[in-house]
Amino acid sequence: IGLCGGLFVVPLNALLQEKGHETIGAGNALAVQNFVENLVMLMFVGGYSLVAAMGIPVTQILIGFGLILLVFIGVLAVFRMRRK
User: Fold this and answer.
1) Pseudo-torsion of CA 63, 72, 21, 42, nearest 10°?
2) Do 46 and 60 belong together in one domain?
3) Same domain for 29 and 8
């Protein structure tokens, strides 16, 4: 799993650095990426803690988080298509 993750993440970060260099700089692009990743992670951990305290089963929580993430990515995709 780690190898597959690395094969996905390394080219993605290289692309981010290339596109970031053209706009705000490679270092700034990575800083923004890391900030957003950590912010979303904290939001999901907080959300999980709240929902788990209500007694909802873990499988339902994960399915719910997956659906939230799917909708969010769909909104981003639509926004990106409209910008072009």
Assistant:
1) -60
2) no
3) yes
